[in-house]
Amino acid sequence: MTKPHIKFSFTMGFIVTSYVTFTLVAVNVGFGRQFLFLWLRSWAIAFVLVSLSILYLAPIVRKMLKIN
User: Fold this and answer.
1) Tens-digit pLDDT profile for the chain (68 aa)?
2) pTM above 0.85, yes or no
3) Distances, alpha carbon 66 to alpha carbons 7, 9, 17, 38, 53, in Å
4) How far is the C-alpha of 56 from the C-alpha of 50, rounded, in Å?
5) Helix or strand or coil: residue 2?
6) Contacts made by residues 50-59, CB under 8 angstroms, sequence distance 24+
7) Domain that holds residue 60
């Protein structure tokens, strides 16, 4: 694991989880009083899971697909 791989994992995790959780919370809950709290809570959980998944699964997938 190199520094660029770590930066990539966290950047992609941030970008993807931000718009996916925003969309899902907006669709399922709407823009009520609790929206910001629910979105940030959902985002924090998703960010940790997705970033770590990208970090650890990307090398395995690269090997399987014979990429670099």
Assistant:
1) 788 888 988 999 999 999 999 999 999 999 999 999 999 999 999 999 999 999 998 889 889 998 86
2) no
3) 22, 19, 27, 40, 19
4) 10
5) coil
6) 50/12, 50/13, 50/16, 50/17, 51/9, 51/10, 51/12, 51/13, 51/14, 52/9, 54/8, 54/9, 54/12, 54/13, 55/1, 55/5, 55/6, 55/9, 55/10, 58/5, 58/9, 59/1, 59/5
7) 3-65
